[in-house]
């Protein structure tokens, strides 16, 4: 079932619908630290007085820049520059018009904003602090619920209070410049600005009064972002990326399947050839069986004729021989025998001995045959276990396995060490955060145990400006483990640290020793005596940076890449150590996983090698037992013949025992006549038997013995002629089987048993067929048959596995195809709904654009919208072309056709206001318009100002606009608040407190920051 795309709920960040109600800055341009209230949902006119009597140089643009930074204006490019451009708003003496001797440049500063809802301001208040520094990280942000403004009556103390508050609001985490806007304000821009400032790269925008330099696609992108719909395009881009990945996964699967199929075809071709070889061998056996059975049938038929003749002659000879034998036996017995009973007993004993010998040989054969079957079963098992053997001896695989085990153990030890390192670095970071890091931390613990309070680590309280680092870092380095104690507590501190040899103790200044800190050095404890002594004693030299003690001849080099003094520097360094330790542990874990996988592979390879070596021993033992069984079969046959002979002897002795005497004389006369007749008949039998022997009936019978049962019902259908062709077919099919198995008969390097198989096949093929061959075809093919049979099981398993893998791969591919189809379906639905959604948004913007134009007396305006859906990885392009009529009867003209620059600027502002009016979801927005009214005629100026007032009131958007003197009168008639910045003397580094006129009907919002706004304004300098 296809899942339909449901547009996600708009994300408006932590600030949500809250409005900006107050701004406070520290070391930002010439602005003071006095909070500035902002009346939300109104047009706020921003003006002032500069050193030359007009508003130029009053600091109004600096204030707007600070607001745009606070609200994450996209044009600052926080996502790519990390907020570095924003640090340009920090105070610099040259920009303030004073010399470096009068004021030092600010190395860091803060921009603070208080936000609250229209209702329940106290319960919904949130304060955002943005920290700017001249070194990385350039910009960071923190936030906390409630109001957190610096309100100390003394302005200098208020600067220190800002550092304390910045540390206090860190419980919700610190946001980088790249994450700040999305985390705090969500996916719709909270602030859109036009600033006439060189601090950031000039980028044409809808508010930059340079709309003609923007492409239609850039205008469309800006309007989509203003409407809060960019998140839908981002979601579509993610889903489209998923579909591209699914399509690439499917294509990769097809490519791998094609490669596997080629491998399968090669494997199956080899199996098919072996199956064909088995079939050819079976056909060869069939042809051979037909041949030997037919030959046996013919020999048997000829033998029947000979047998009939021999039988007749033998019958006659037998009769004659029988008469002779009987006569001789009787005569000999009568003449020589004296103990017939003893002869019968001895013959019977000999017969029993022969029976025992036969039974013993049969028992021995049964035992050996049982051992032979056991070896065959073991060989079949070893064939499977050695299937993956690559040919290495077990000694090598055992060494590899031992090495892999060692590598795994090393990897595990390394992983354990990296985990311990994480704990060690994290503990060091925790101690540093508590001000108890390193050797100084141990000394502070000892002082605290002895109730000596107020001590601090030197490197925890000393901070250096960037310009002071080259000269002061090498001066302070030898004292990095030193602690600072109050001068009055020095004796007690030294006593408490007596058990810490080498402890460094620095005492604070005496009452008459306090002085100014060296340039670029700050410390919250009075140790100027110590620092001035270092400055005098250790002279700074550059190229390279170093300090030198002339009296000692001692030099300490500087040039540290990162700050070494100050808590923030220490925490940053230790935090980096923790990150490095975590990364080392991750790499070590990956190494352990790889080592364990290598150990598994090495163990499997070693087991295969052991099985392969055992298989060689089993094959030799099985061959030896087979030979023993053959020898025992011959011995058993011989013993059986001996047993039969002994039985016949006993029967003769027993017969002789029954009869004893005939007349010797009568028998001798008859014997001479019988012997002559027997010799004549015997010669005739022998002659015919010689003819019969040449038929080789018994040999052909033995050759056909195994096949006779197959043809016993079809014996008459066997061929009786051209039997030589049948023999040739049998040997040819055997040759085919060898060829299919990969045996080249012309190869001189064939194994011995295969060479013998080739020789015997050729011998059978070349035979005449008149006499029975000494070797039968099955015996000649036995080496090939054994090899084919040994591979038969493996071939069946391989073929089955390939079929199973094909089925599994087909199932996986079907799943990938289904996933791709579902993903493409969801993407189509999403793109359709996004297109409909954005077309509706842009349509509402166009409608509002026309309404605003006609309300100010214009002739009408619209937006020409063209959408290009994304193809592949390309982006979705929405081209929006603003058009308006220059007269009632005229046609709509594109914004690119510039005839009246003032009209373009008016319509650019109207277009932004139309986008704001069309977005009913985003609250708390701020528009910043610098140099408002420049290049506008009086009528256009009043129209624009009137539109700003109406939109601000209708949509509760706060619009900050700077007004030159010529615009201020008109702006005062429509604004809901006036901010007046004053820098009347170039001799003063900072502005005077900002003056404010306005009315906020929400008294709770006013009371929320009232005490902070009035604090310090009426003291000296306020």
Summarize the structure.
The protein is of the alpha+beta class and 1022 residues long. Helix content is 58%, strand content 11%. Strand 17 (861-868) and strand 18 (877-885) form a beta hairpin.
Low-confidence stretches: 1-9
Number of strands: 23
Average pLDDT confidence is 81
What is the number of helical segments per DSSP (H or I, 4+ residues)? Answer: 26
Notes on the structure:
With 1022 residues, the chain is α+β, with helices and mostly antiparallel strands. The protein contains 26 helices and 23 strands. The strands form 6 sheets. Strands 2-1-4-5-6-7 form a 6-stranded antiparallel β-sheet, sandwiched between helices. α23 (901-918) runs parallel beside α24 (938-955). It is elongated, with a radius of gyration of 55 Å.
Considering the chains and any ligands shown, give keywords for the structure.
1022 residues, alpha+beta, six-stranded antiparallel beta sheet, six-stranded mixed beta sheet, 26 helices, 23 strands, 58% helix
